[in-house]
Amino acid sequence: MTELSPTPSQTVGPFFGYALPYAAGPRLVPGWRSGAITVRGRILDGAGDAVPEALVEIRQADGSGEIPRRPGGLVRDGHGFSGYGRCATDAAGGYWFSTLRPAAVGADAPYIAVLVFARGLLKPVFTRLYFPEDTAAHGTDPLLAQVPGERRDTLIAEREGDGVYRFDVRLQGERETVFLAV
């Protein structure tokens, strides 16, 4: 009898483009709303190449530090704020969100929770996006305190202009984004 050895696990898909993205997904608030910001970036692999067909989700508090807990994350009427968004990446690995700048919750510096689903990943990866203006709060943030100093900048977005932030996620390799265990 031949002894069989286990085979490595394989990913199936990606199938993200079929039903998961939705038209209003990247618009947590309309761009015309007072206080609206744009968060944009790219998902990159270990070689620095774009990861098309990935799916990026964000969850966050609002501008007063309240975490929305009401139903209706898919319904965007232009006035409410669900704190949840989803955007598929384009051929260049790009994504974007129109949202509000969150306020701090508890001892944490203001942040946006980011999940990335992509080819080659059996499970999504989790990270946080912090804002460059909050340097003082970064010093007391419990999670950032656990990240080695030389890696913290992978969690801090770059300000590109008035109300525009760039946050590239590098899945591995040089300057790999810090990912969190859940």
Automatic annotation (TrEMBL):
Keyword terms of this UniProt record: Dioxygenase, Oxidoreductase
Entries under InterPro entries matching the protein: Intradiol_dOase_C, Intradiol_dOase_core, Intradiol_RC_Dioxygenase, Protocat_dOase_a
Keyword Oxidoreductase: yes
Highest taxon listed in the record's lineage: Bacteria
Positions of the Intradiol ring-cleavage dioxygenases domain: 36-109
Gene3D superfamilies noted in UniProt: Aromatic compound dioxygenase
Pfam families reported in the protein's UniProt record: Dioxygenase_C
Protein family per UniProt: Belongs to the intradiol ring-cleavage dioxygenase family.
Protein name, UniProt field: Protocatechuate 3,4-dioxygenase subunit alpha
